[in-house]
From TrEMBL:
Subunit structure of this chain's protein: Homodimer; disulfide-linked. Forms a homotetramer. Forms a heterotetramer with ROM1. Homotetramer and heterotetramer core complexes go on to form higher order complexes by formation of intermolecular disulfide bonds. Interacts with MREG. Interacts with STX3. Interacts with SNAP25.
Origin superkingdom: Eukaryota
TM region(s), chain numbering: 21-41, 61-83, 103-125, 264-286
Function in brief: Essential for retina photoreceptor outer segment disk morphogenesis, may also play a role with ROM1 in the maintenance of outer segment disk structure. Required for the maintenance of retinal outer nuclear layer thickness. Required for the correct development and organization of the photoreceptor inner segment.
Places the protein is found: Membrane; Photoreceptor inner segment
CDD domains named in the record: peripherin_like_LEL
Acidic residues: compositionally biased ranges: 337-351
Protein name: Peripherin-2
Length: 351
């Protein structure tokens, strides 16, 4: 049975293979470490923005899987660096001969599988952010006024900090605040006729105004912030309501957060792709180095050529051999025939 993808390796190519693997392995360890750091950064960002993401949004699975994939790549790189360095010294390589095979299987099935899953999530999950942010921001705006309601008492502070930090206003723009009651009823004067008229004019009994919270104000504006009566063209001198970006943040928080998180996901996906490529090269190189050294009893600088390969036989032959071994293992042992009973001894005739 011929081996799969055999490669003849003379002395110098064997040594160069081990040296190149040592360098590639450290590059893989570096890429795995960077994937760990970036996944942790994305996970921290999602934790900070958890109030503005719908609980059903599956995007949080991406950094969690990427963390595991980065950890696996880091481990594979460290193992590869240790094994390739030890292969250059016949006295250090023997301990690696026993564990290198299982480690290669674990790195291929476990680490490679996690990287493929993380890459798939990096491509598929950013699309779920749109709906997740839409629902989450809508809920946050609706609870902005509930400063004394258990479970929502921090909604105002968090949303103000979000708008100030990310230079955004509302969900899709400043006019989103016109359609919700963002002033708590505690701070409304029930004796004020204007307040009563606004509440009675609304079908749902809400106090709606054409104004925005202070956190929508742009501090770089040359004039004091205008927060109320924004839809009235003559309410404020020298103010054009058609150009609110001169006074308020122009972008909605949905677009800002969507772009921010998708950029982080795309960078993470690119890093995972590079890590996946490096892991393939390291695992292939380690397999060829391992099988080549098996033919030399672990001595890399032995004279003569040796052959490295991926599998000792073709896939069809491997499956056939495994099937036969399974049949033999599960075949019931032949039952032993019961021992024949000795015939009864006849009595001797009396003398």
């Amino acid at each position: 049975m011929a081996p799969v993808l055999p490669l003849v390796l003379p002395l110098q190519p064997r040594i160069r293979l081990a040296q190149g693997l040592w360098l590639l392995s450290w590059l893989l360890a570096l890429a795995g470490g960077l994937a760990l750091l970036y996944s942790g950064h994305l996970l921290a960002q999602l934790w900070l923005l958890r109030t503005f993401l719908a609980p059903s949004c599956p995007f949080a699975a991406l950094p969690q899987v990427a963390l595991a994939a980065g950890l696996g790549a880091l481990g594979t790189g460290l193992v590869g660096a240790g094994a390739s360095r030890a292969s250059l010294d016949a006295s250090q390589y023997p301990p690696w001969r026993k564990v290198l095979g299982p480690l290669l299987v674990l790195g291929t099935a476990g680490g490679g599988g996690l990287l493929i899953l993380a890459l798939g999530l990096a491509l598929a999950l950013p699309g779920s952010l749109d709906a997740g942010l839409e629902d989450g921001l809508g809920t946050a705006l609706a609870h902005y006024k509930d400063t004394e309601v258990p479970g929502h008492c921090h909604a105002k502070r968090l949303l103000d900090e979000l708008q100030l930090r990310h230079h955004c206003c509302g969900r899709h723009g400043y006019k989103d605040w016109f359609g919700i009651q963002w002033v708590s009823s505690r701070y409304l004067d029930p004796n004020d006729q204007e307040v009563v008229d606004r509440i009675q004019s609304n079908v749902e009994g809400l106090y709606l105004i054409d104004g925005v919270p202070f956190s929508c104000c742009n501090p770089h504006s040359p004039r004091p912030c205008l927060q109320s009566r924004l839809s009235e063209p003559h309410a404020h001198p020298l103010f054009d309501p058609r150009q609110p970006n001169l006074n308020l943040w122009a972008q909605g928080c949905h677009g800002v957060l969507l772009g921010h998180l998708q950029d982080l996901a795309s960078v993470l996906g690119g890093g995972l792709a590079v890590t996946f490529l490096l892991q393939i090269l390291v695992l292939l190189g380690l397999r060829y180095l391992q099988t080549a050294l098996e033919g030399l009893e672990g001595v890399i600088d032995a004279e003569g050529d040796t052959q490295g390969y991926l599998f000792p036989s073709g896939l069809k032959d491997m499956l056939k051999t495994a099937w036969r071994q399974g049949e033999v293992a599960h075949r019931p042992a032949p039952e032993e025939a019961p021992p024949e009973e000795a015939p009864p001894e006849e009595g001797l005739p009396e003398a």
